[in-house]
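Can anyone check this?
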Amino acid sequence: MPGLVLGPLLRYVDETQATIWVETDAPCEVDVLGRKASTFRVEGHHYALVCLQDLEPGDEYEYEVRLDGDRVWPEAESGYPRSVLRTIDPEAPMRIVFGSCRVAVPHRPPYTLTKDEDPEHGREIDALYALAQRMREQPRDQWPQLLLLLGDQVYADEDAPRTREFIRNRRGTEGEPGEEVSDFEEYTHLYRESWGEESIRWLLSTVPSAMIFDDHDIHDDWNTSISWLGEMRAKSWWDRRITGALVSYWAYQALGNFSPEEIEERGILERVQSEPDAGPMLHEWARDVDWGSGGRRWSHSRQFGSTLRLIMLDSREGRILGERPRRMFDEDEWEWLNQVVRGDVRHLVIADTLPIFLPRAIHDLQRWNDAVAGGAWGRPFERVGERIRRALDLEHWAAFPHSFQRMVALIREVGAGERGEPPDSIVSVGGDIHHAYLAEVEFPPEASVESPVWQAVCSPFRNALSSREERLAKAGDTRLARAIGRALARTAGLEQEQLGWSLVQPPTFDNQFATLDIDGDAARIEIERTVPGEWRRPKIETSLERELTRAAALR
């Protein structure tokens, strides 16, 4: 009898369609709500994506998973509610939870201790675990309709004790890449360890998810610069790592981001299903993606009636690094962005793992560094600039100023009504930087921007900083740090930007998640953190609440 290895994951959901992803331990037919799909094979592992269509908008469907007719989900001894699929009512209130950065460690001491209490193992209370525990006691109408996982869903280079043990037993850890994940097989164990805990499985089976990757899903500082890329490609193990990473990302994360129509249009799944084992074909495809001039587009967008447009950006894989100016995306992706970053919707949400608007001191440091690496201080300092870029991880939007300016221009045009009716709110959401904040973005009066524009950042789900790391992060946004950043920018000949943004309150730390509530013309954000201590029944505290639309704030 075949069994479930991982899943089910409820992925894409709209008014009348949904997809459910599973990994099984043998080839079989997967049945969900009477819709069936056969598994496909990748390097001996078996997966299926069940597409459900002709559903009723705004309805609820409790579901089971059957493999070759035998029920395997829900598990008989589960203490969690039945998994439920809820289709979207595009005019009803919408609740979106988002965040990033979640290491795979058990949810028990010493792993639930702080880093100060246990520097080696302490990772505090898992925010997604805490969310699942709260949902168990809530009515369904309080559950989120969408979960945005904004990067570092898995850590190829950190934690995951069962995966590291598998690596030690499989090939040993002498020489590179040591205990880091090296190929597709090891990635399968990492995903299993990251998503296999009971509460996380239930959460992902009940709340639809959209995902985009960041560096740790592949390798720390992935695609920071052309020098980094050249150094990694020279390593004998890198080809296995990058192709295994991209193949596993497609199988475990990217495939579920798209609607059934988009999956058919892209055509990769159909090719995979035609192969006895699609591993060799997918590795060749991944190699072409990695070595291509701009990669393939992993970014995607969703429309929820006239209320919400969500755009998920991949700012990692498709970077243009070997040219000046360095760019986040190739021209094909910018053309796509020009089509989807538009108004005529009440709320526009632009999601990327990397915040577009960093704290100002860090922003100025990164654009100064890019200018120095580009010759602003003369050729002798170009290499120094590249070394600083890599040493300090200066590779966010500010470190790609050409792309930052293009993105700001798109946001300005939408907010000024040049791309359709301006939205009631424009919210850029991000993660990555292991703290959370809300910043209000202010355009000069001559920009004629009518929409409130915000940057909301929430990270990590589970990888909180130590007290020392927290102090360093806070020091990066002091008045002195901002003055130093402005001075450095001037030494590189960079003009003061007319655009401004400022944090509405100090950033928050610890493990946390953010909730974006949208109801008609109103939008509201809440950031909640887990409280270190009791791990069996975790406590959650609100650290920030804010209305994001002027009309809502005036009510």
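Reply from J.R.: I decoded it. The chain has a mean pLDDT of 95.
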